Amino acid sequence: MDTIDKDKGYKRIMGQMDLMRKAPHVAVGFFAGESPGDQGELSVADYMWLNEVGTVDIPERPVVGETTDAVAPEIEAMLKRELEAIIQGRSTVEGALNKVGIKFKAELQKAITSFSDPGNAESTIEQKGSDNPLIDTGTARNAVSYQVRMEDKS
């Protein structure tokens, strides 16, 4: 009598676990050279960094940090569900990270749109015609992107 070896998903699961050992992750934000409006002196990534940390002329507007803190519990719960889906064969590591990227991108875009404190200086309001500190033409909001990185290259 011959022995029949039936793989009921073990190889697939182990393949996904091997991918996880390579430290896959998703990066969300503003990537230099990839954003519309990166033709000027400052890229959108640079401009948003200056807003995030503040300068002598720009007050600190930590929209990325605040959004990260606000959505962290939801993202953690999403990742737990996705891990279970990976084990059950209904998802992949890359698919799970894409879902996280899409979710975080949407949340960051909403946060940029609704960010209001600190507001603009009166001179900026007169120049722009609005008091929304992170929105002028919408370039920064539209530049939010994400990248799934399947290996840690750092």
What this model shows, in words?
This protein is mainly alpha-helical and 154 residues long. The chain has one domain. The chain is built from six helices and two strands; from the N terminus they run αβαααααβ. The chain has helices at 10-20, 44-53, 63-87, 93-114, 122-128, 139-143, and strands at 25-29, 145-149. A two-stranded antiparallel sheet has the order 1-2. α3 (63-87) runs antiparallel to α4. The chain is elongated, with a radius of gyration of 21 Å.
Q: How big is the Rg?
A: 21 Å
Main sheet properties: 2 strands, antiparallel
Poorly predicted sequence stretches spanning 5 or more consecutive residues:
none
Q: What is the terminal separation in angstroms? A: 52 Å
Q: Order of strands in the sheet with the most strands?
A: 1-2
User: SSE order in H/E notation?
Assistant: HEHHHHHE
User: In total, how many beta strands?
Assistant: 2
Question: Roughly what percent helix?
Answer: 40-55%
What percent strand?
A: 5-15%
- Tally of separate helices: 6
Overall geometric form? elongated
Structural class per helix/strand content? mainly alpha
| Whole-number tally of structural domains | 1
List its salient traits:
154 residues, mainly alpha, two-stranded antiparallel sheet, 6 helices
Task: Briefly say what this structure is.
The protein is mainly alpha-helical.
